[in-house]
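Morning!

As promised:
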Amino acid sequence: MKDFDIEKLERKNIYRTPDNFFADVQANVLREAAPAPQAKVISLNWAYAAAAAVATIFGVTFMMNQHEAEPQIVQNEQQVSPPPSARIIEETVPEATLAYQTFEEDLTSVETDNQKDVPAPTMIAAKQKSEKIEVAKSTAVSPEVQVDQILANISMAELADLGKNAEQDVYLDLYY
Amino acid sequence: MKIKEEEIIRLMSSEKSREKGVRLMMDAYQSRLYWHIRRIIVDHNLAQDVLQDTFIKAYQNFHQFKQDSQLYTWLYRIATNESLQQLNKLKRMQKTDEDPDYHLQNMVADNAAPDAEDIQILLQKAIHSLPEKQKLVFTMRYYDDLPYEELSKILDMSVGTLKTNYHYAKQKVEDFIKQNYNENP
């Protein structure tokens, strides 16, 4: 072994490989490295693309206009319609009229037999107004005057009876 | 071989014929690359993984291949880098205090075919006793007969350095065999 020269040695592989080894390697490589199948790309004609773009623009514009038009209508409605108070009056007036008519019919149904002259609604309304004014005037009098008026109408004997019925205040007795 | 390589490059340059080109490339170089990897890594399963990764990287990064070098040079470069990465990974995972090169020497005998000659097994053990760069230069020069110019491109080393490394590697291998070969086992 003293004159050993490696260049004279035969080049040999000392290892073995399994059967079909290289076929398996190729299959694995192609399976892992091959790009995934891509979705089919549909080529789009320029005319179709332009038509689609125009349609989209019109659609968006139409939608925008529709959104803007809706508040205008509401505004117009607000301008045309009367204020809420007026609306309430409009709504309540027919009911009041109806109530008045029924009330009138009830009142007049009894009197129609004896009275031929039926007062006009305007006359009744005026009468009611004058009565209300009188009541208002009476209520406008001060409470002191009203008490004096009541006391003036009561006799001395009635006052003595009322004083007997009243409970005696024990604390007031101290000062008598 | 030159004509075949041009054909492979032409096929792989086109998206439509790339798969066909890869098949042709694997048919042409799979055996040489496998044995190159196997001599470095020893274990068959790991060598298979590295070979597959080599071809996959070549397939996916073919646009990076500069045609100023030969295709097999580029493939050898990928295979060598992948093998060294795999070896480093194994060294990091190795928990025992055993020297990684000594571990590879033991693996040689375990993985050798039953009919393998003792001198051949001893030669493989001697190769695994070499430093990494000398090991690579020696295997590619001795087994694959690659010219120094191509080795220079694969290993990023000058031709002069490669020649020196090969010379020292050859001397060490011969000494290892002389010391360990038993003529009467």
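The two ends of chain B are 43 Å apart (CA to CA).

Hope this helps with the figure draft.
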